[in-house]
Amino acid sequence: MQPIKKERTIVDREDLPVTLGDMHTLLRAFKRELLIEIKTLVLDQPRPTPMKWLKNKDVMVLLGIKRASLQALRDKGILPFSRIGRQFYYDPQDIETEMERRKTIGRHQPVLKPLKRSNRPH
């Protein structure tokens, strides 16, 4: 007959014996709950807002223009901007408004090519 192993016990606040196995189980459950709570907090954070201001380079890429053309738009008062030191900043909404204002429908209708007939018998 084998001797029965007695688990060590830890006394909790209510003076009830708790085994180390029970503590491991409780700690694993606590860890799961804590991770779920942390994930919930992280995922509920508001997303960062998009950048409010665009720099010269950003606007040139968006509009597909060169630096001189961008300067001309500023000089003519077509494109509003803010300037801090030597850097120019543009509101993305102003860029979008200018693009919408300049949107045109081309004069030419797209050329439609005739459908190629297959060589398969009908």
Structural notes for this entry:
The chain has 122 residues and is α+β, with helices and mostly antiparallel strands. Among the domains are: 9-43; 54-101. It has 4 helices and 5 strands. The protein has helices at 20-43, 56-63, 67-75, 92-102; strands spanning 9-11, 17-19, 54-55, 82-84, 87-90. The strands form 2 sheets. It has a 3-stranded antiparallel beta sheet. A two-stranded antiparallel sheet has the order 1-2. The radius of gyration is 35 Å and the shape is rod-shaped. Mean pLDDT is 78; it is low at 109-122.
Please give a quick description of this structure:
The protein has 122 residues and is of the alpha+beta class. The chain contains four helices and five strands, in the order ββαβααββα.
Which regions have little confidence, pLDDT < 50, spanning 5+ residues?
109-122
Query: Helix amount, in percent?
Result: 40-55%
**Counted beta strands:** 5
User: How far from one another are the termini?
Assistant: 91 Å
The ordered H/E elements are EEHEHHEEH
Q: Tell me what portion of residues adopts beta-strand conformation.
A: 5-15%
Averaged pLDDT: 78
Radius of gyration over alpha carbons? 35 Å
Major beta-sheet overview: 3 strands, antiparallel
Q: Please state how the strands of the largest beta sheet are arranged side by side.
A: 3-5-4
Structural class: alpha+beta
H/I helix tally: 4
Sum up the overall morphology in one term.
Answer: rod-shaped
